[in-house]
């Protein structure tokens, strides 16, 4: 009886290992292709580059959304790590800089990640994993940096989000000049964010954008497409 069990179960194990290996290969290939081309790369391109059949790809990821969901989950893990690193820094200003620069580094070199992050925003704010994982720690960093006297007192977390999006656009615009050219403009941004002695900061004529209007901006922005909606469970 034991021998029969060994005979019937043994062949299944390498199949499971092969299936997982194929899944990881597909994900790695999709990540590389999307990094170069953005989400415009087709599933057929992914299968061909991974050296697997289209049928194999669809067994693991039945549609495009399922593949993008898996990549989105990886991206969230990376962003959570960056957020944790930022929160661990004693000064909020250092954490804020680390958060903005590290996130921009990722998006500047990976078009797919940038597109996935912005295309995957949920219609319902209560159902948006990205917002849920980033907004509270970002608010903590902003408040700490203001209390420590490093960040101008009239800034809010939404301002940081808008500046990060603007920096993504700048990074794409100057990419032809060099992969690190965007760092010059981040330095200028950080200088504008710095607290100055009393009266040293220019007055902000417009009030900050609230969360609802910020979402409207994301919806209308060229990288804020909802054509690939995130599946929530």
List the helices and strands and how they pair.
Layout: H1 2-9, H2 12-37, H3 43-50, H4 54-60, H5 64-88, H6 92-109, H7 111-119, H8 129-147, H9 157-173, H10 182-193, H11 211-220
Helix pairs in contact: 2-3, 5-6, 5-8, 6-7, 6-8, 6-9, 9-10
Provide a descriptive summary of the structure in words.
This protein folds into 2 domains: 62 residues, Arc Repressor Mutant, subunit A (Orthogonal Bundle), CATH 1.10.10; 166 residues, Tetracycline Repressor, domain 2, CATH 1.10.357. 68% of the residues lie in helices and 0% in strands. The C terminus is likely disordered.
What attributes characterize this protein structure?
Arc Repressor Mutant, subunit A; Tetracycline Repressor, domain 2; 2 domains; 11 helices; disordered C terminus
Cα(first) to Cα(last) distance is 42 Å
User: Count of DSSP E strands?
Assistant: 0
User: What would you say the CATH architecture of the largest domain is?
Assistant: Orthogonal Bundle
Q: How many structural domains? A: 2
Number of helices: 11
What would the average pLDDT be, to the nearest integer? 82
The stretches of 5 or more residues where confidence is low (pLDDT under 50) are 5-15, 224-233
What is the N-to-C succession of helices and strands? HHHHHHHHHHH
> Compute the gyration radius: what is it?
22 Å
Main sheet attributes: strand count, strand direction, barrel closure: none
Global structural class: mainly alpha
Q: Which overall shape is indicated by the principal axes computed on the Cα atoms?
A: elongated
How big a fraction of the residues is strand?
Answer: under 5%
Q: What percent of residues adopt helix (DSSP H or I)? A: 55-70%
The CATH class of the largest domain turns out to be Mainly Alpha
CATH topology of the largest domain: Tetracycline Repressor, domain 2
Oligomer: single chain
């Amino acid at each position: 009886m034991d021998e029969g069990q060994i005979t019937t179960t043994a062949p299944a194990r390498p199949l499971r290992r092969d299936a997982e290996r194929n899944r990881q290969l597909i994900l790695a290939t999709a990540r590389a292709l999307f990094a170069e081309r953005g989400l415009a790369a087709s599933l057929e391109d992914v299968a061909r580059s991974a050296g697997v059949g289209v049928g194999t790809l669809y067994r693991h990821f039945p549609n495009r959304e399922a593949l993008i969901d898996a990549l989105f989950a990886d991206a969230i893990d990376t962003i959570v790590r960056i957020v944790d690193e930022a929160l661990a820094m004693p000064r909020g200003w250092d954490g804020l800089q680390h958060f903005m620069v590290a996130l921009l580094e990722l998006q500047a070199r990976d078009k797919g990640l940038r597109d996935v992050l912005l295309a995957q925003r949920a219609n319902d704010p209560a159902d948006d994993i990205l917002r849920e994982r980033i907004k509270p720690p970002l608010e903590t960093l902003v408040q700490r940096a203001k209390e420590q006297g490093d960040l101008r007192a009239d800034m809010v977390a939404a301002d940081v989000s808008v500046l990060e999006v603007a920096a993504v656009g700048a990074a794409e615009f100057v990419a032809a000049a060099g992969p690190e050219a965007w760092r010059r403009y981040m330095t200028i941004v950080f200088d504008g964010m710095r607290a100055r002695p009393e009266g040293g900061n220019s007055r902000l004529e417009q009030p900050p954008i609230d969360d609802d209007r910020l979402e409207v901006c994301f919806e209308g922005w060229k990288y804020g497409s909802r054509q690939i909606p995130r599946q929530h469970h």
